[in-house]
Amino acid sequence: MTEPVTGRLRVDGATLHYEMRGSGPLLLLIPGGTGGAASFDGIADDLAADHTVASYDPRGMSRSALDDAEAAQRVAQHADDAFRLLELLSPRVPARVAGCSSGAVVALHLLIAHPERIERVVAHEPPVVEVLPDAAEHRALLARVQDTFRREGLMPAAAEFAAGLRRPGSDPVVVGAAAELPPQAAARVERTMADMPYFLGRIVPSFMAYVPDVDRLAALSERLVLAGGEDSRGELPYRAVAFLAERFGGELVHFPGGHTGLSTHPAEFGALLRKVLSA
Length: 279
Description:
Layout: E1 5-11, E2 14-22, E3 26-30, H1 41-47, E4 52-56, H2 75-89, E5 95-100, H3 102-113, E6 118-124, H4 135-152, H5 154-165, H6 183-186, H7 189-194, H8 196-207, H9 214-219, E7 224-229, H10 236-248, E8 252-255, H11 261-264, H12 266-278
Parallel strand pairs: 3-4, 3-5, 5-6, 6-7, 7-8
Antiparallel strand pairs: 1-2, 2-4
InterPro entries: AB_hydrolase (IPR050471), AB_hydrolase_1 (IPR000073), AB_hydrolase_fold (IPR029058)
Protein name: Alpha/beta hydrolase
Keywords: Hydrolase
């Protein structure tokens, strides 16, 4: 793996850690969950063959410290962070963007807010559950998760959250398990678990309550690639992105693996992402 060039960018209320590899047009990778920039380590080198690949730790995660540790988190502010990185790394030239999970929510808002700066966006399973007809059920899930977090702590709340995301009748998810992950991904579990209280307590409630401007996205859909996991059909984030694809009359591109296919199938995931970006 090529060692990236690292940098720091001062933004409103935080200092972002970012990483860059390769040369060519900018591809900004926006991580989801607690993965941070390192979540793309398994695919960044391959993508860097024909892109300047940049990623970062979102504000409040890992090496991107908040000025105020208690500050509320908003999708729009996270999208502005991504915009500031585009302005720094690809001034005046539209860039390509890919995001996974909560990072895909950020990517959608970035496209809505700054379409002139975006050539193409790949959004893999953004959990924009407010677009679904049964959104009220998912608001109740989020309320249960936060209540469990307050009363019982992190791991019971994480288990409640994971259970609410999976398809009905599927096997339980073991939260924090790394046995089935490639060694590179498994080695990150300890660090990412350290960010779990922030993610579950601050990011999840805000990001899963986010209501995208669906009409605006529809008008920009020629620049938007909506993606889901082959193995996550019927799960909550998949249902949300599939709903948008149907609403826009477009194709839902299926990536290998499930919601975390980036970690479980990095080579295949990266190859398809590279193909989709160049289409």
